[in-house]
Design a protein that fits this description.
This protein is mainly alpha-helical and about 70 residues long. It has one helix spanning about 10-70.
């Protein structure tokens, strides 16, 4: 972690608060990419499922239309 310089020097209580804020910020940034990847993955799976469903419907529709043409 880069060194943070503060002027004027902080007292012990201010340093404790600053360290707490910085550590919670690091946790937030560490968690964000994982949460983003997880949401992206769920969305990609949903879109893939929708695409496969649309493809199946298209294939079935085409097969039914072909059958109807052949019976006429």
């Amino acid at each position: 972690m880069p060194r943070l310089e503060v002027t004027p020097p902080l007292g012990e209580s201010e340093l404790a608060v600053l360290e707490e804020v910085l550590s919670s910020t690091e946790l937030l940034f560490d968690a964000t990419p994982a949460a983003y990847r997880s949401a992206w993955w769920r969305r990609a799976q949903h879109e893939s499922t929708q695409h496969e469903s649309t493809q199946r419907e298209s294939i079935l529709r085409e097969a039914i239309e072909n059958d109807l043409r052949q019976t006429r």
